[in-house]
Design a protein that fits this description.
Blueprint lengths: L1 H21 L7 E3 L11 E4 L14 H6 L4 E5 L5 E5 L2 H10 L4 E2 L2 H11 L8 H12 L4 H26 L9 H18 L10 H18 L7 H7 L3 H22 L10 H4 L5 H11 L6 H32 L2 H14 L16 H13 L5 E6 L3 E2 L5 E2 L4 E5 H5 L2 H4 L35 H18 E5 L6 E2 L20 E2 L3 E5 L4
Parallel strand pairs: 4-9
Antiparallel strand pairs: 1-2, 2-3, 3-4, 5-6, 6-9, 7-8, 10-13, 11-12
Length: about 525
Amino acid sequence: MSLMYIAVGIVVLIGYLLFKLRATSPPGIQTHSGYEPFFGVTRHEGKQVLKDKSVSVAEYNFYEMVRNGYKAYGWGHIGGRSGVVVVEPEDIKYILRDNFGNFEKAQSLIDIFETLLGDGIFNTNGAAWKDQRIISAHMFNRRQLRDRMSEMFGSHAQELVKILIEQEVGSSEPTNMQPYFYNFTFDTINRIAFNREVNSLRGNMEDRAFQRAFDVLQSKVICRFLTPWWKINRYFQCSEDERQITESIGTIDSYLAKVVNSYYDDEGSPKDDVVKGDPTITGLFLENAMSEGRKYDKKFIRDMILNFAIAGRDTTGSALTSCVELLVENPKWQDELHKEAMKCFAGSVSEPLTFDDIQEAPVSKAVFLETLRLRPSVPINEKVTLSDTTLPSGVRLRAGDQVGWLTMGTNRNPKHWGPSADEFDPKRWLDGKTYEDHFYPTFNAGPRLCLGREMAILEGQITLLTLFSQLRFSKVDGFKPKLITFTPHSTQVPVSALAGRWLFLRGRLRCSRCSPS
């Protein structure tokens, strides 16, 4: 054991020396070294000189930087890699669309998330990503939304309301909506991904255990960003985080094995009678592979399911929770939703809403999109630069530099959204108003535009209309929701645990019935 500690100490010392000697920031980005953790993510908090002013991340948080007109900040860290985070729409458009081929997911990020995402669509580049995207696109066409998904969302939303009426309405205890929404979206993505009715809303313990392991895995994988030696910890299992990751993976793989095995025969080949005509994501992938003479092994299917489970559960579950919180703060929009719901239900709330029912429901769509403007499920994202380039804002990037875009900052920038940029105002989206993706990059943009965007909006609308057709939410006196921020080195940015886990201590609310009138 003593030899292991000596070896780890030598690696740490070498890493620290490289860190001290080689940390640099991108050209044109001044650095500030006043805050230097022993082994943190950054050595230099970057300064961008604009408007004859300069600012360091140690002195400002991202909101203040956007408010004061700063376009970017830069950093340098271990191994000499450096990078910037930008907020300007033209920079985001350049990265995600105009010069898309010059930016890809960094191998360091792929390594970190491999345990969770494997070779799935959110953790790959190039041909592997493109193949998965082409196949997945068939799942999210208008016919699927109209004929299959809307029925699932409508029936599950009805079940959610029934449970809330049974368990929360009239209760003396306040309501925490986040677990309800995460169970709800977990149930719907299970139906979409592999046509499995899990009913975690009603407390299926096996499914709840999977979700708990899923949450632990995401949160502990994120900790690897702050632990440069995480691979050593993983190999020797010498940290609590890595031990919990290993334990969680065991629970997840055991759960998914039953699902994946149902598609394969004893010889490891997909079952023709199960795959053909299967409308789920899993069925689409396996049927495509069979028609082209390719073979997807069970690990690939497992990875694919986990990628879509994260996208389908976490992002929409987070968005719906934020919707209710913002509607509690802005009760007049609860009234507007109720009016629209009564119109969509045509006076009867007993039947699930359908795709056609909500085609004239602008308020619910506006509320959902405005929520995701203020609280995007993925508030920050990142890629690596393949060759030297200059962003439209003038920031120069070298090959190997990391570049991130702060969706949350872009979505709240008063230069583009006006002086009320921080206010919840769904009117921005009414009267047919639309915004280009790089001004509102909540769903990404360009070739990697979120395939599930229309599905998420459909699910959000149906859920909100079903909820507010019968329920109303209000604040508990004296209780103030607390925003928990992930704060390495005072950057004060609320980050997601992967694809949508806003770190909020959710507001405790009162849930009550509302009059049909």
